[in-house]
């Protein structure tokens, strides 16, 4: 290797960089200097997280080789523009305006915005958006609008029209709950000081070893005949090549499946592939070496001999009569769940005044967090195997991997690193298990693993695609009479979270309407595409793809406005959902009454602004989601009084960027109000399995609800212990003097609070709380190119009392921006395109509207901490169908199979000109719906 010394002015200071000019990128060089505020997400120039200013120009430093960096170049990074005690206006504004969620993109955006404001201190919003578009700055969390808000606010300060105090949060009194207090981790994120996993890699002890995965990517379904590691093991620097035969435990990643209709139990996924490759991204070995480069070179030399098997890349092929079994022990369709309400839907539909039918496809969506998968591992001083990673489910993931790698779960410690988002994929224990398996082999040195973004894309789970057939009918007044549906979901080759997703589909189809007769079936099948895992909007989104589209179709056939058609069919007091139970609340009328004038205004505007080439349209969709995992959900937290009078809150409310930190702070401050603490007297100790009680998975929109109640419990216990007979509170010294414990566990458990869905009928009421909403999309469609753009999104949501405005708004902007991209472009069906962020369809700034309004009704809940409910998943429930419905409203083309690409819209327009509708034929999902219903009725479980 030939090295070069390059002298640069780094943040104004003359520094020498020693590097390999051919191999090292500017990003690598800067980060090796300790300036890890510059992040690397995609690593290939698509995301802008590595943006820095080079000689006055914004550049993506991951694509600049050091050989192209001139001597005496001026380099500005996030560390050079402001510090925690002397923030740049952009840094302050990003904190105040909710522009920081996971924060992984923030340094890149701030540097990019600084370069813009250096040139033009008075940009318009559209100029800011165009700048971020041009410079490829991607944020997957915020939906961009809060970032543009922050840039506009900071620009005012830079122009001298405002001062820093004007753009800082001002606390009124001592109120935290219900305010827009910025999240505690925001300061570290905007100053580049937050150490994500790949930053920690540079800060590990000197003897740290590096891992590289062997992901052959030669087949999606094959028998493994031989894995030859000899050549790799002989290479310089290689310490070990770990394969399945080295694994001490079961070599299985365990995510239990206990649905009575499944013979699969969630034990089928190998940690390292042993007998078969089940999908393209399976890993057969992990190389452990002295350097990352040595590990990667050796990984290329591991030889895998295979015998190809038929590959079933979608559920329709996997359930075809001639398909072979993907797992020997079960047919490819391994789980079925009916929903039966009232009379048989087919009988009612046949006699109804009006009916429509359709077949729909929800595509395979990648989460596309800007940070990929990265982690560290070591054995701690107490003999625990420690994995520092992005876990979204610390307690659950511990159990998920301990038996697989062969360790007592009590000796497995999982710590969540600061996390550049996941939106669900990090609920899956698979990659953490790889680290665990290597640590079982290497006990005397720490390890670190950074997957490339491409490796991560093929390794991580995705949203389950779903094919559905449905019919919907109404009477002559437009009152719904019956719904019939049959949905088949593709979970890839592993069952992960199958029972949970099935439940969601079977609850949110046709929600929140009054439908007296429903016959439905959910099926889940194995395929050889990527396995499916958690993703915001889990399961409900596939249901809405069907029911909110067919609702529009029926309204049209009846000659009714889709808004008013829905209005007369939304459930009113006492009316029941498709599972036979009343809704918990009935805010549907209020939501629609709030939205109606906006809808009417949008329709008029769309009509006025449509041209011959660009047609505008408006679409709506009703949405909602439940809160908690249902009966048996459990959360624990602990509160401890410290000697200095502060309180430490211990929990595992995993923070993936959604705001576990501000959520914890807000509920704690509110629960301890009688103590009169200020926000900074509450300390957070979070997300370490051996220091914090298990608060449960950060999913199912459950965290605020479950941790909130557990916090109230802990706070009451602590305050009761501190309370003196006259009502004042003991100090720490007084507690110590009286030998009163100062740390209390708070618990909330939902056992006995709900009824699981009956596996024979779908009747049930699993959760205590819900969120409700409606979404209005405004789109424009270019009839020449077929390209659709969402130019406006409005939501009216009822999530109960809001605990933190920035966090809830953040989920609304973020969830809806995912909905928009799900409707129009995100898709991992094509493995080649799916290798990269851009190829898989991540939306850039100008693809998400700046006209983005969220209206919150805040009806306090009777059940829910401080009147709150959940939040997150409401906002990624049905917004995508609002976009699809708006496209139809604009040009009369219905997109049945997502995403609505320009090619599909164009083909639809051409078909329409010929008087045709490109409607898919009814899908064959493995058997006849009513045969299956009869079989289930005859053989109940
Ligand atoms: S553009 Fe450099 S890391 Fe993505
Ligand atoms: S805050 Fe932008 S990617 Fe997470």
Automatic annotation (TrEMBL):
InterPro entries: 2Fe-2S-bd, 2Fe-2S-bd_dom_sf, 2Fe-2S_ferredoxin-like_sf, 2Fe-2S_ferredoxin-type, 2Fe2S_fd_BS, Ald_Oxase/Xan_DH_a/b, Ald_Oxase/Xan_DH_a/b_sf, Ald_Oxase/xanthine_DH-like
SMART domains, per database record: Ald_Xan_dh_C
Record-linked Pfam families: Ald_Xan_dh_C, Fer2, Fer2_2, MoCoBD_1, MoCoBD_2
One Gene Ontology MF term: 2 iron, 2 sulfur cluster binding
Keyword Magnesium (UniProt): no
Keywords: Iron, Metal-binding, Molybdenum, Oxidoreductase
Superkingdom of origin: Bacteria
2Fe-2S ferredoxin-type domain residues: 4-81
Family: Belongs to the xanthine dehydrogenase family.
UniProt-recorded name of the protein: 2Fe-2S iron-sulfur cluster binding domain-containing protein
The species this protein was found in: Desulfosporosinus fructosivorans
């Amino acid at each position: 290797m030939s090295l070069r010394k390059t002298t640069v002015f780094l943040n104004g200071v003359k520094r020498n960089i020693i590097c390999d000019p051919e191999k090292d990128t500017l990003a690598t060089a800067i980060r090796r200097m300790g300036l890890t505020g510059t992040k690397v997400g995609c690593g290939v120039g698509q995301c802008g997280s590595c943006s820095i200013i080079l000689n006055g120009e914004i550049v993506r430093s991951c694509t600049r080789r050091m050989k192209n960096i001139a001597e005496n170049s001026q380099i500005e990074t996030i560390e050079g523009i402001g510090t925690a005690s002397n923030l740049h206006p952009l840094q302050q504004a990003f904190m105040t305006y909710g522009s920081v969620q996971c924060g992984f993109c923030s340094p890149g955006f701030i540097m990019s915005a600084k370069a813009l404001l250096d040139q033009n201190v008075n940009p318009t919003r559209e100029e800011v958006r165009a700048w971020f578009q041009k410079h490829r700055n991607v944020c997957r969390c915020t939906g961009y609008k809060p970032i543009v808000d922050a840039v506009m606010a900071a620009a005012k300060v830079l122009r001298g029209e405002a001062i820093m105090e004007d753009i800082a949060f001002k606390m009124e009194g001592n109120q935290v709950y219900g305010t827009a207090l910025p999240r505690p981790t925001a300061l570290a994120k905007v100053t580049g000081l937050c150490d994500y996993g790949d930053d920690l890699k540079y800060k590990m002890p000197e003897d740290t070893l590096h891992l590289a995965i062997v992901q052959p990517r030669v087949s999606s379904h094959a028998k493994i005949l031989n894995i030859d590691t000899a050549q790799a093991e002989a290479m310089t620097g290689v310490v070990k090549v770990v394969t399945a035969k080295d694994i001490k435990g079961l070599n299985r990643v365990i995510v239990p499946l206990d649905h009575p209709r499944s013979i699969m139990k969630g034990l089928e996924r190998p940690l390292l592939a042993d007998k078969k490759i089940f999908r393209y991204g399976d890993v057969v070995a992990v190389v452990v070496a002295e350097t990352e480069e040595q590990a990667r070179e050796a990984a290329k030399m591991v030889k895998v001999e295979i015998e190809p098997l038929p590959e079933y890349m979608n559920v329709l092929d996997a359930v075809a009569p001639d398909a072979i079994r993907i797992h020997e022990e079960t047919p490819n369709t391994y789980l079925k769940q009916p929903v039966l309400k009232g009379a048989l839907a087919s009988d009612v539909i046949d006699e109804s005044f009006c009916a429509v039918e359709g077949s729909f496809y929800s595509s395979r969506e990648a989460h596309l967090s800007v940070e990929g998968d990265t982690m560290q591992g070591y054995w701690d001083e107490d003999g625990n195997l420690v994995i520092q990673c992005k876990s979204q489910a610390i307690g659950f993931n511990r159990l998920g991997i301990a038996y697989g790698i062969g360790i007592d779960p009590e000796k497995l410690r999982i710590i969540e690193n600061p996390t550049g988002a996941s939106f669900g994929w990090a609920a899956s224990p698979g990659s953490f298990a790889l680290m665990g398996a290597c640590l079982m082999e290497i006990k005397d040195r720490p390890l670190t693993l950074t997957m490339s973004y491409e490796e991560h894309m093929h390794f991580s789970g995705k949203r389950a695609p779903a094919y559905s057939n449905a019919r919907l009918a109404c009477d002559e007044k437009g009152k719904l009479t019956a719904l019939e549906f049959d949905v088949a979901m593709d979970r890839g080759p592993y069952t992960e979270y199958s029972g949970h997703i099935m439940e969601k589909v079977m609850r949110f189809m046709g929600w929140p309407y009054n439908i007296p007769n429903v016959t439905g079936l959910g099926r889940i099948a194995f395929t050889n595409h990527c396995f499916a895992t958690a993703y915001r909007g889990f399961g409900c989104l596939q249901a809405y793809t069907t029911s909110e589209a067919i609702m529009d179709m029926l309204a049209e056939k009846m000659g009714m406005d889709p808004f008013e058609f829905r209005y007369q069919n939304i459930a009113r007091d006492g009316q029941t959902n498709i599972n036979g139970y009343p809704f918990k609340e009935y805010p549907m009328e209020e939501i629609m009454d709030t939205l109606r004038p906006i809808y009417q205004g949008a329709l008029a505007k769309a009509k006025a602004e449509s041209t011959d080439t660009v047609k505008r349209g408006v679409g709506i969709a009703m949405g909602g989601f439940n809160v908690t995992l249902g009966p048996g959900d459990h959360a624990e937290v602990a509160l401890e009084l410290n000697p200095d009078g502060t309180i430490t809150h211990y929990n595992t409310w995993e923070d993936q960027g959604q705001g576990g930190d501000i959520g914890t702070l807000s509920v704690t401050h509110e629960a301890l109000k009688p103590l009169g603490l200020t926000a900074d007297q509450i300390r957070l100790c979070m997300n370490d399995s051996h220091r914090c009680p298990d608060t449960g998975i950060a999913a199912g929109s459950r965290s605020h609800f479950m941790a909130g109640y557990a916090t109230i419990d802990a706070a009451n216990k602590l305050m009761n212990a501190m309370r003196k007979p006259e009502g004042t509170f003991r100090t720490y010294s007084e507690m110590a003097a009286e030998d009163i414990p100062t740390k209390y566990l708070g618990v909330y458990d939902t056992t006995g609070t709900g009824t699981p869905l009956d596996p024979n009928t779908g009747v049930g009421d699993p959760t205590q709380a819900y969120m409700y909403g409606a979404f209005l999309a405004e789109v424009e469609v270019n009839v020449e190119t077929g390209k659709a753009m969402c130019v406006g999104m409005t939501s009216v949501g009822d999530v109960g009392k809001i605990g933190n405005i920035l966090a809830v708004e953040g989920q609304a902007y973020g969830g809806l921006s995912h909905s928009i991209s799900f409707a129009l472009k995100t898709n991992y069906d094509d493995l080649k395109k799916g290798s990269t962020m851009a190829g898989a369809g991540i939306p850039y700034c100008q693809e998400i509207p700046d006209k983005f309004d969220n209206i919150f009704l805040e009806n306090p809940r009777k059940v829910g901490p401080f009147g709150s409910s959940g939040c997150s998943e409401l906002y990624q429930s049905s917004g995508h169908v609002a976009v699809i419905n708006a496209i139809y409203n604009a040009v009369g083309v219905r997109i049945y199979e997502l995403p609505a690409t320009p090619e599909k819209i164009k083909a639809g327009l051409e078909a329409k000109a010929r008087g045709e509708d490109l409607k898919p034929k009814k899908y064959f999902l493995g058997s006849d719906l009513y045969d299956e219903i009869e079989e289930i009725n005859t053989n109940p479980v």
